[in-house]
Design brief:
heterodimer, A: about 220 residues, mainly alpha, about 85% helix, B: mainly alpha, disordered N terminus
């Protein structure tokens, strides 16, 4: 299963590395979202610093939608879906592989956006361990939920409009947990917020979606 | 599952729903499923509604229990010491919220039954569709009645309380589920995808229910589900009766909605054939020459 996962994941990443869609389209989009937040908050530096954690994760959330759509767009042409199904790879392995590829892309985006919030919103990083672990847990959660729903919406005529409607309410707990954990780590929380406690919410969400996706993919790969 | 097996399962399902076939033309009292089954066997079968004796009894008892609840809740029971007249919402809001959970829970159970290969029939998918839709209706009603209660007691229509937020998320998640159901395509594939979404999404229901105990919440905790219920006497009975009333209404709605699904499936099966034969008949009337036998376009 893990061998299949590495195979699929490295295939997705190789395509991304060669086509450079993530680096030339998704990454600029994510930074653009941050800049737009600056306009929306009327360049109020105090407000931006206070809201930085939430804005960061909203930007990650919006970019993850693009990453997931991209992850299935590369399967849509040249009968790639059929060959993936006929390849005899373990469905759970396919799920984990596609998830891992999205996780890798999200982590790169998060580093970029992290620089963005430090430079644009003027925040200071206090608790790097909590920041990094939160990023890891949230990325896996976002990627797992996104990959599962991406597969559910794959092949449908209305997938571009349906996918955000399906994913956004589902990953709302990630936004909540990751924002709270980051606020604690950045020192912008109201005080008394235990970041590690919110991290446990993130981890349980991630575990649920990785398990659900691994189980559901055998049904989804078989049918469509 | 391949398309052939799907049509087989569908036809078996339809025959089962038909049960024992009544003689043709046995009047209006025949149960709904029989009429649909007849319609499926003779293409002229017209279905004029989704009601039968069961739904009429259910609907009637819903009206009676609801009226009784309204009378007890508005006239007989006393106003609260603290909340005054507002306490009367306790005869609506908890029952509506419970029906919302029931709808989503039923949807998830039916979806699980559909995903389990041995119990995979169209009827579970229809039940999931019907109960999810009714669940969303009750979920919106929960949010609305809660908002009406929140404005005078908390001073705001909406607050970012865990219970409220998760209920809103639950509503959004199942609206997404209904949107997915509307996307069309291969019904069997769609049923599987929808079933997976329903099973994953219903995990929010226990979180929502426990939200008031897990987090420090503005929303009050459960009134009934505790060793010593917070209300007694006629208030308790009225509240229990409200659960019966909304429960009957829930069953009535789900049954009707399920039958609409049956009709939609039948339309998908026969609609195209019927449309073609109607066009053929029109062509015959216009040219006055009867059906064209050579099959060559002029």
């Amino acid at each position: 299963m893990w061998r299949d996962a590495l195979l699929v994941g490295s295939k997705d990443l190789r395509i991304e590395f060669r086509s450079r869609v993530t680096t030339t389209q998704v990454a600029p989009y994510a930074v653009l979202v941050l800049v737009l937040f600056g306009f929306a908050f009327d360049q109020d530096q105090n407000l931006l610093t206070k809201a930085a954690a939430g804005l960061f994760w909203v930007a990650v959330l919006l970019s993850s939608l693009l990453a997931v759509q991209r992850s299935y767009a590369i399967e849509a042409t040249d009968g790639a879906r059929d060959s993936l199904r006929l390849s005899g790879l373990d469905p759970a392995g396919i799920f984990l592989g596609k998830t891992l590829a999205v996780v890798a892309e999200l982590l790169v985006l998060e580093v970029l956006l992290g620089f963005g919030v430090v430079v644009l919103f003027g925040i200071e990083l206090h608790d790097p361990a909590l920041l990094v672990v939160t990023c890891l847990a949230a990325s896996v959660g976002l990627a797992a939920a996104g990959t599962l729903y991406g597969m559910i919406a794959a092949g449908l005529r209305v997938r571009e409009t349906l996918l955000p409607l399906l994913i956004l309410p589902v990953v709302a707990p990630v936004l909540l947990g990751a924002t709270q954990a980051w606020m604690a780590a950045l020192g912008t929380a109201g005080g008394g917020t235990d970041g590690w406690k919110w991290l446990s919410l993130l981890i349980s969400f991630t575990v649920i979606y990785v398990a659900a996706g691994s189980l559901a993919f055998s049904i989804l790969v078989e049918e469509s | 599952m391949n398309p052939k097996a799907d049509t087989e399962a569908g036809s078996i399902d339809r025959v089962r729903e038909g049960g024992s076939q009544p003689p043709l033309g046995s009047g209006k009292a025949e149960p709904f499923a029989h009429r649909v089954a007849q319609g499926a066997s003779s293409s002229s079968g017209r279905v004029t509604g989704t009601s039968d004796r069961v739904t009429r009894i259910l609907g009637g008892s819903t009206l009676i229990t609801a009226a009784l609840t309204a009378w007890l809740g508005l006239v007989v029971t006393p106003p609260d010491k603290v909340q005054g007249q507002l306490v009367r919402l306790i005869y609506v809001h908890p029952a509506v919220a419970t029906m919302c959970y029931a709808g989503f829970g039923l949807c998830a159970l039916a979806s699980l039954a559909y995903l389990w290969p041995r119990t995979r029939t169209r009827r579970w998918d229809r039940l999931a569709a019907a109960s999810a839709e009714v669940g969303v209706v009750f979920c919106v009603l929960t949010l609305v009645t809660g908002s009406i209660w929140g404005r005078p007691t908390w001073g705001v229509w909406w607050t970012w309380d865990p219970r409220l937020t998760i209920t809103a998320l639950l509503c959004a998640v199942f609206i997404g589920y209904l949107a997915l159901r509307r996307t069309g395509g291969d019904p069997d594939a769609l049923a599987k995808r929808s079933a997976i979404v329903a099973v994953v999404c219903v995990l929010l229901v226990p979180v929502d229910h426990e939200a008031t105990t897990w987090w420090a919440s503005l929303h009050q905790t459960s009134t009934l589900l505790r060793a010593n219920p917070l209300i007694h006497g006629e208030q308790l009975y009225t509240m229990l009766l409200s659960f019966v009333a909304f429960g009957l209404g829930f069953a009535w709605l789900v049954l009707h909605r399920y039958r609409v699904e049956v009709l939609e499936d039948r339309y998908a099966d026969e609609g195209f054939d019927n449309a073609i034969s109607e066009r053929r008949a029109e062509g015959g009337v216009l040219t006055g020459a009867g059906p064209r036998s050579d099959g060559v376009a002029p």
